[in-house]
Design a protein that fits this description.
heterodimer; A: 249 residues; alpha/beta; Rossmann fold; nine-stranded mixed β-sheet; two-stranded antiparallel sheet; 11 strands; 27% strand; globular; B: 539 residues; alpha+beta; FAD/NAD(P)-binding domain
């Protein structure tokens, strides 16, 4: 079994996001970038399945600018076998990403495609689902546990009501939740070995995919600042304020 | 448990200007020398903080074609100001009356973090192997006592010291020569200085704490290339310190404050002095209407020539501010750190190729402009122990009339942890409330640093005696850690009327001030798990 894992380079989750002055997007200059956190879980799970002898190869793919390659290198350092870097200059919408991934699936013929449930930059949570539709493969989203069976997967999903367990046939798409596992650290010797693992570079233009945006972004702005709280003297005042000022009771 | 080991010709600890310059120089001299460089931050530059007005002298020597290499050195200093601040007034000091070392017209306003990122690119292109996210936590010695290399920190250890599922053992990096370039108060450098008595016969090292905020300000207040320094308010005559304000590109200013850690009043809060400083009319009018976008703090070296330890030992060199090459009157340490790195590169090359002893570093150092610079600067900082006014008068005579050639050397008498007076004897200081426009509390400041440490790992701020803070330091000094820490790591909390000393180590921004200033040297800073700490952008 072969597993393709999609990873995305995003602003590190510890960095405080700043909006560009003209409202055209967020500031990315001199900002620490990392792998999208749930994508780390996706890689970890794929590598674990391979280590358990249930998969033969783990291929990491990213779509992005030149430096996005670091994200593939990191995946290679924690156990992926080889990488694919689809080069694009601008940021893509989930539909374009799914279409590119569809082409990569055609080429690589994996049995499973793993990715994070969503990326922490645009929070779209669409790519896995769209890819599933394009390929007409079953999907399991928000996976917090994956059990590999003969020709199917038993997947536990994190849903609003609790946990849902489903069984889907392979080939399939799985989008991973942060609770799925604890990603390992890349060790220094493995980082060195990863430098020698192959990364195939593909230009998005060569794949013949229409990546034109379908959505027009009008403005990016900061959420309104939270107003400071007030202290009330007693319960009566609290009730009075909730009733007359906040109008919630 | 046995650890894996890897061998290199040269292992460098720290990806700042000195370590990166060492690496680049070595590869230029011989591309076949294997060089690896470890950095504890998640990426190069993420833990470094500096003003910074940059003198290009060392870079001109290291990479003479830096102008063609798309370097981040762009904003030339175009104008200079020096202000003496009173409580509400300010007096402008004519720049022609400043000593030559404080004139900056040939220099550039830069972000040192960005300079380091760029130096790292140059180093990698030359074949240096750089590993960010790997703190060197331990020095390894040969049987004859010489330095053999370092071990990196184990990853995936929980609070109690047990291995987690994600446990990844540290590895040993062995070098024919190991170069320690950790910056001010490096925790391995500190061990080496003690073990090899590198500071024998030297004055105690002197430190300062530096704060920096980046503000995006109103166009009409911004003057790209303007460099401004202040002395005076809010500090009293007996506390050494001052501010900087550098107008960088993109409407940003680098605003900062440095306070000598030899201050005496345990009630003093360096952080609050900096916040208060911003409310001075001369400063407020510039930042008003602007937005603070970054914050950070870091200890720096102030001891200079008298306190500079020997920089070589069997198997290893100590470079940059891990030794202490900052030039205090110039308020610059990047070019001196780089020069010490260049000298280290040359030394190691001759050591590896011609079997020369590492002690040739000393001679190279003595024959360099770095030595001359530090020697001439030596009397400025100690003269300020007589107070600001006498310090300025003496500095005028020493630096302008005699150009640092007075036939004597003033001494640093005390280490910084010895200078605090008992809390009872010193006046309390009432700092104004934060207005969340110009001044901010520590929590919202630390938030801007992007600091994070993986939770469930051992506390990396160790107490030699866990009871001392409450039983002694609180009583005698009102536990100054609550105030000297720029990130609010240390708190004294009352629980059921019993005082408890709390260490919020996840907030630590790796400035090392606690390790320096704790009156009983009871706090030891050790490396946390790799990648932890601040994530500074263009600091």
């Amino acid at each position: 079994m072969k597993i393709l894992v999609a990873v995305k380079r995003v602003i590190d989750y510890n960095v405080q996001i700043r909006i560009k002055e003209d409202g055209s997007g967020v500031v990315t200059d001199n900002v620490k970038m990392s792998t999208n956190p749930p994508d780390d879980n996706a890689i970890e799970e794929a590598v674990k399945i391979k280590e358990a002898g249930k998969a033969t190869e783990v291929v990491a793919v990213t779509i992005g600018e030149e430096k996005a390659q670091e994200t593939v290198r990191k995946a290679l350092a924690v156990g992926a076998d080889r990488g694919i870097h689809v080069k694009v200059d601008n940021s893509l919408e989930p539909l374009a990403v799914s279409k590119i991934l569809e082409k990569i699936v055609d080429k690589e013929k994996p049995d499973l495609v793993f990715m994070g449930k969503q990326a922490i930059d645009d929070d779209c949570n669409q790519t896995g689902q769209m890819l599933s539709a394009l390929l007409n493969w079953p999907q399991a989203t928000f996976a917090s546990k994956i059990e590999v069976k003969e020709k199917s997967l038993e997947v536990t999903r994190e849903i609003d009501e609790g946990l849902e367990t489903i069984e889907i046939n392979v080939p399939a798409i799985v989008t991973c939740d942060l609770r799925l596992n604890e990603p390992r650290y890349a060790s220094l010797p493995n980082i060195m070995k990863a430098k020698k693992k192959p990364i195939e570079e593909i230009s998005a233009a060569d794949l013949g995919v229409d990546t034109a945006p379908r959505v027009e972004q009008i403005k990016v702005e900061e959420p309104p600042k939270r107003k400071a709280g007030i202290k009330v003297a007693n319960v009566a005042e609290l009730v009075q304020k909730l009733k007359n000022e906040a109008k919630v009771i | 448990m046995s650890r894996e080991s890897m061998e290199y010709d040269v292992v460098i600890i720290g990806g700042g200007p000195s370590g990166l310059s060492t690496a680049i120089k070595l590869k230029q001299l011989d591309p076949n020398i294997n060089v690896c460089l470890l950095e504890k931050a998640s990426e190069i530059g993420a833990h470094i903080l500096s003003g910074n007005v940059f003198e290009t002298r060392a870079l001109d020597e290291l990479l003479p074609n830096w102008r063609e290499l798309n370097s981040p050195i762009k904003t030339k200093v175009s104008k200079e100001k020096f202000l003496f601040l009173g409580k509400s007034k300010s007096l402008s000091w004519p720049t022609w009356l400043l000593p030559a070392v404080q004139q900056n017209h040939k220099n550039y306003i830069i972000s040192l973090a960005n300079l380091c990122r760029w130096l790292a690119e140059q180093a990698e292109a030359l074949g240096v192997e750089i590993f960010p996210g790997f703190p060197a936590s331990e020095i390894l010695y040969n049987e004859d006592g010489s330095v053999k290399g370092v071990a990196t920190q184990d990853m995936g250890i929980d609070k109690e010291g047990n291995k987690k599922d994600s446990f990844e053992p540290g590895i040993e990096l062995l070098g024919k020569v190991t170069v320690f370039a950790e910056g001010c108060r490096g925790h391995l450098g500190k061990e080496l200085i003690q073990k090899f008595e590198l500071d024998k016969g030297k004055d105690p090292q002197q430190y300062g704490i530096g704060f920096k905020e980046i503000w995006e300000i109103d166009e009409k207040n911004h003057e790209e290339g303007l460099v401004m320094h202040t002395a005076g308010w809010p500090l009293d005559n007996n506390t050494y310190g001052g501010s900087f304000m550098y107008h960088a590109e993109n409407k940003q200013i680098f605003l900062g404050y440095v306070i000598g850690l030899d201050y005496k009043n345990p009630h003093l809060s360096p952080y609050d002095e900096f916040q208060r400083f911003k409310t001075h009319p001369a400063i407020k009018k510039i930042i008003e209407g602007g937005k603070r976008i970054s914050y950070g703090a870091r200890a720096l070296i102030e001891g200079g020539f008298q306190s500079l330890p020997k920089m070589f030992m069997p198997g290893a060199l100590l470079v940059g501010c891990d030794a202490g090459t900052l030039n205090m009157p110039k308020i610059k340490g990047s070019h001196t750190a780089m020069k010490s790195g260049i000298l280290a590169g040359e030394t190691i090359f001759e050591h590896l190729k011609e079997n020369k002893d590492l002690s040739i570093f000393e001679e190279k150092f003595k024959n360099s402009w770095l030595y001359k610079e530090l020697f001439e600067a030596r009397n400025v900082k100690p003269s300020f122990s007589w107070g600001l006014i006498l310090g300025i008068i003496f500095t005028g005579i020493d630096q302008i009339l005699f150009r640092g050639k007075l036939p004597f050397t003033l001494k640093h008498k005390h280490a910084d942890h010895e200078t605090l007076k008992p809390a009872k004897e010193m006046p309390r200081i009432d700092y104004p409330k934060y207005d969340n426009v110009i001044t901010f509390d520590k929590t919202s400041s630390v938030y801007l640093t992007g600091t994070n440490h993986a939770d469930n790992q051992p506390v990396h701020l160790k107490l030699k005696d866990p009871d001392l803070p409450i039983n002694y330091t609180l009583e005698k000094f009102d536990e100054p850690a609550q105030r000297y820490c720029p990130a609010g790591v240390y708190e004294v909390q009352k629980e059921n009327n019993i005082n408890k000393f709390v260490i919020n180590s996840q907030n630590c921004i790796h400035c090392k001030t606690c390790d320096i200033k704790e009156p009983s040297q009871n706090i030891i800073w050790v490396t946390p798990e790799g990648g932890g700490g601040p994530k500074y952008g263009n600091m």
